[in-house]
Amino acid sequence: MTAAPADSIASDRPAPLVSKVGMALFIGTEAMFFAGLISAYLVFRVGNPNWPPAGQPRLPVESTAFNTLILLLSAAFCHRAVSTLRAGLARSSAYWLGLTAVFGLFFLVLQGREWIRLVQFGLTLTSSVYGGLFYTLIGVHGLHVLAGTALVLYVLKRSVEGRYSAAYPLGVELARMYWNFVVALWPGLYFLVYLL
Amino acid sequence: MTNDPHGPQKFIWKYILSTDHKMIAKQYLLTGLVMALVGAFTAYLMRWQLGYPNTNAPGWGLVTPDKFNMLVTMHGTIMVFFVGMPLLVAALSNFVIPLQIGARDMAFPRLNMLSYWIFVLSCVALLASFFVPGGAPAGGWTGYPPLSASEQYTGVHWGMVLWITALALEFASFTMGGINYLATFMCLRVPGMTYFRVPMATWFLIGASLAFFFSVGPLIAGAVMLLLDNVAGTGFYIPAQGGEPLLWQHLFWFFGHPEVYVIFLPAVGCVLEILPVFSRKPIFGYRAIVWSMGAALALSYIVWAHHMFISGMNPRLATPFSITTILISVPFAVIIFCMLASLRQGSIRLDTPMLWGLGFLATFLIGGLTGIFLGSASADIYLHDTYFVVAHFHYTFFPSVFFGGFAGIYFWYPKLFGRRYNETLGKIHFWMTFIFFNATFWPIFRVGAGGMLRRIADPTQYRILDQFKEMNSMISVAAFILILGQVPFVWNFFWSMFRGPAADANPWRAGTLEWLAPSPPPHGNWGPGLPTVYVGPYEYSRPDMADDFVPQYRPVGVLGGPAGQA
Amino acid sequence: MALFTFVFAVVSPAFGCPLCFGSTPYELGLYWSVLFLLPVPFVIVGVLIAWIRRQSDGNIKEG
Fold first, then answer.
1. Collapsing DSSP states into helix, strand and coil, what is residue B453?
2. Which residues fall within 8 angstroms of residue B463, CB to CB, at 6 or more apart?
3. Which of the listed residues A185, B14, B56, B262 has the most CB atoms within 10 Å of its CB?
4. Nearest CB to A4: which of C28, C53, C63?
């Protein structure tokens, strides 16, 4: 807690560092929020020897694996958006941002399609604790993807307006931080909920 | 970012939608005090029912058992989440942190304003629960399921939904606040303000934010599931649907235990700030205190399961959690001893803030020591869920929120409003509170050890409690006088705000940075140039200086060198 | 930490308490859940501190 170098932090620090620290702290609480959900999931997952409970459908492992790939690719695009912007290529940065948003939306649409099929198979919020946990955990992550996509689209709009440059890439960097967090959560959740 | 356009501001921008950290602190302060009145009213009704069972309480009417449950729940919720947190965490952090570290404002002023208004929204949601069909939540302030998860047990549905909503909004608000406090603390300190020159109040407010910040997520996760249980028909906490009620206890106390320190640490910070000023001595063991706080914070995250010792938990977990629970008292003992040592051979001035600070020490010690009875499992099996527990946690919470909080309010009052409060009224307020607080809660230990259960609406139903009839009436009278004893404060607070004598910049002759700014500090706090820090915060009575204190912003020169903490 | 591993690994079977839970799978679920949440705040705070230190170091070099 007291580890930062003494005397080095002065009040005339440029705003980017403060903003990034704020975003990092926010991501920290979000991570704790998901830790709480995962902890709740573990109570039932470890507590029930037969999982999923009898009469409940299995989850679509393969199509979601493909979806995982989509999300990881979008994170790579987001990285490109920042690196091209830092290299001074604002236009191609906007292009990569757009691709990120498109892939994020694609992930959501695929998830939604799987959900509709699962509901048809009889897995609903109230059908069992299994269903409730699935929709809560994956749904909350879905909401985060939605929020992340909205953030990327907002940054894209400002990027098209020419507000970012190699000298001032802050907004895109912040969006990337949040997007990285959302994407990094997913493989863990996928492993926990679909595979384990 | 630091300065909004100056010049005359319209009323709405200056007082309502202000982004100035000092105005937001005052907003939080007033909101917290108003909520404290509501909390005091619930306490009055409960004490009336316990002291004079089944008679009409003046100003309300008969307190029926179902209403009593609601009052118990709302009293706890309001006093912990809607009085303790806005007063101690939000108001003090907003006011003190930027001033003490030399910032011009919070790192994110607009987020700060948003956080306050979300908090107001959550207060409205909570108070609205009194007026919805079914009434206020009645499942206890910890909201244990299945009481809280299903309407059939308490008959309350909308009240419960509003309760969860209010808590969720409040935690969203305090998360925004926490981001602000931590980012401000890390990035906006003035040159020379190294980590070990940061004043105690700021350190402990930051500690409170850290305790809050990384524990609130799991509670929100639990609250989401509780809300779904209530409105969507899931069964996370309902055993009949395959749920697990213990899960809530697990997630709630993961937050709930650090929350104890969220309330406690700012109070300690205020007292630590006040002790050196009013005994004109450097604080004893500055570094030891800071490291102790760090250790206590780390431990506070790994003790929560001790709240579930007798709810059915794997005994493999009981031993490590007992060990950490015992360990966590060590850093606090260090801090308390440092406080006492700071007083030793000081030239002590018993002004009002100092009285509150010493009152905090005295009363909190009783709370801490009675905790030992509850911490040992054999005594706890007998005392569990009796009024002994009630007395114990009131002896810890009340000193923190009110003794510590009032210490802070009186201490920074001149800086907050630019005027002096009335010292005589302040002292009357202190002695009324101190005497009648003890007169209220000390007998409650006796009643609890005699077997009176907590949360019962009508003690006359139990023959063993007949012997406590007079004592209960006496406790109630003391509690009413305790509430009336706050009248001098309310009068003093508002009268002095407009009519008190003007305060100069440094009325206490204290060394920390906030006393450099004018009282009250203008928007932007420091005028054209930021101050620079040369020495530690508590340089009192240095033998090499003529004056009895060295403010942090004054260079000491070659003689003393740029001394750190003595 | 060494004490912790000792306590977790060795002491458990010898518990003669009157509150012996932990045999059914449900309580095992809570057990692992508690164990999972135990280190998480420390990991997150550790990562945050490391990240912030790296950021501010970079900032000093750039500025």
1. strand
2. none
3. B262
4. C53
Domains assigned to chain B: 17-550 (1.20.210.10)
Yes or no, beta carbons of C29 and A28 under 8 Å apart:
no
CB-CB under 8 Å, B107 with A35: no
Q: How far is A113 from chain C (nearest CA, A)?
A: 31
Chain A hits for C34, Cβ within 8 Å? 39
Q: Is the CB of C42 less than 8 angstroms away from the CB of B317?
A: no
Rounded to whole angstroms, the Cα distance separating B539 from B283 reads: 9
Spatial separation of the C-alpha atoms in residues B58 and B71, rounded to whole Å: 16
CB-based contacts of B468, cutoff 8 Å, min separation 6: B447, B450, B452, B459
- Record: contact A32-C25, CB cut-off 8 A: no
Q: Secondary structure of chain B: what % helix, strand, coil (to 5)? A: 65, 0, 30
CB pair distance less than 8 Å for C7 and B323 = yes
Taking 90 as the threshold, does the pLDDT of residue A13 lie above it?
no
Per-residue pLDDT tens over the stretch B131-174: 998 888 988 888 888 888 888 888 888 999 999 999 999 999 99
**Residues 6+ away with beta carbon under 8 Å from B394:** B367, B441, B444
Strands B549-550 and B539-540: antiparallel
Token couple for B319:
């031993």
Question: Minimum mean pLDDT among B78-87, B108-117, B553-562: which range?
Answer: B553-562
- Preferred mutation among A17, A173, A181 to probe C, highest tally of C CBs within 10 A: A17
Give contacts of C55 with chain A, Cβ < 8 Å: 17, 20-21
Q: Average the pLDDT over each of B198-212, B230-244, B268-282, B483-497 and give the range with the smallest value.
A: B230-244
A37 touches chain B (CB under 8 A): yes
Please report the pLDDT score of residue B543 as a whole number.
82
Asked whether the predicted pLDDT for residue C14 surpasses 50, the reply is no
Least confident residue range of A6-15, A21-30, B56-65, B344-353 = A6-15
Q: Is the dihedral of CA C49, B263, B217, B27 positive or negative?
A: negative
B221 inside 8 A of chain A by CB: yes
Structure confidence by residue, pLDDT tens digits, B46-56: 999 999 999 99
Query: What are B419's strand-pairing partners?
Result: B502
Tell me if A4 and C56 make a contact (CB, 8 A cut-off).
yes
> What's the whole-model pTM score?
0.90
Q: Nearest-CA distance from B564 to chain C in Å?
A: 24
Q: Is the Cβ of A9 closer than 8 Å to some Cβ of chain B?
A: yes
Which residue is closest to C22 within chain B, CA to CA?
B314
**Boundaries of every domain in chain A:** 15-50+61-195
Confidence class for position B527, pLDDT limits 50, 70, 90: confident
Q: Enter the DSSP assignment of B456.
A: -
Contact A174, A20 (CB under 8 A): yes
* Side chain identity at residue A2, one-letter code: T
Tell me the residues of chain C between 6 and 25 that have a Cβ less than 8 Å away from chain B.
Answer: 7-8, 11-12, 15, 17, 19-22
The whole-angstrom separation of Cα B177 and Cα B171 is 9
- Assess contact for B560 and B566: CB atoms under 8 A: no
Q: What is the rounded average pLDDT of the residues B479-491?
A: 96
- DSSP sequence for B532-566: ---S-S-EES-TT-SSSEE-TTS---TTT-S----
Which chains contact A through at least 3 pairs of Cβ atoms less than 8 Å apart?
B, C
DSSP H helical ranges for B376-468: 377-383, 387-398, 405-417, 423-449
CB contact under 8 A, A136 and B241: no
This complex has an ipTM of 0.90
Span B465-470, mean pLDDT?
92
Task: Report residue B502 as tokens.
Answer: 């003007």
The class that CATH gives domain A15-50+61-195 is: mainly alpha
